[in-house]
Input
Amino acid sequence: MQSTRESTNASSVDGTDREDDQKQQSLKERGELPQHVACIMDGNGRWAQRRERARFEGHHEGVTSVREVAEACAEIGVQYLTLYTFSTENWERPDQEVNALMELLVHTVEEEQATLMENDIRLQTIGDLSRLPSACQEALERTKASTADNQRMSLNLALSYSGRSEIVQAVQAIARQVKTGQLQPDEIDDSVIDGHLDTAGMPDPDLLIRTGGEYRLSNFLLWQCAYTELFITDQYWPDFRRDQLYEAIRSFQDRERRFGRVQSSTYEDCEEDPATNT
Output
């Protein structure tokens, strides 16, 4: 992930950095920051088609957005960033596009390894990596191993991922434990299921960002997003950069997260007897 700040024209980088630092500081002072941000990076192909360019050019441009968003999240203190990189349904796309995406994945993971180390970012993956070409698996494993001790932020790539398949596999694993007597049925609770998901050990996403204007989860983190705040924008992923991320976080900060509960003061106000209210 070559720093997006480093790639900015040298004549303007100082001013750009200062302005961005001010925006980040304002966010930190404004309210609570999400600990875990998840992104459905939709619209790469449509972004390219609107410019009468090949769909794959949209995927290339989308990598720049990944760099900006990952870098900005790490800088402001987000602990986990999970990107929906390739779904199980994406295997149904034309072979030419799938092969190009796999090549882009290998190139990007190898190219960004040094910068992940410099920024103290740990690379992790969720999903069925066994379906990926061997070159992709090897590149991912090398980078995951080299960044395993990094602490600043975890960058999680959801690859060949399906939320439903993840839940099915968790249920199967729990059923096997029940069958062998390792676990009793009445011992199964949220924490047991959490521990059998690909995201075991991670907090649930606080904020889910979806670009491209579609209003659906698309089989992404179905269990984990039970109380996640959603931010949906019509912008395509290649147009989603630092400023758009900050807008999403401001929207998150403006919301009252009750998790199904009602604040006691609100309840007491509703129950107050009007006759005694003087």
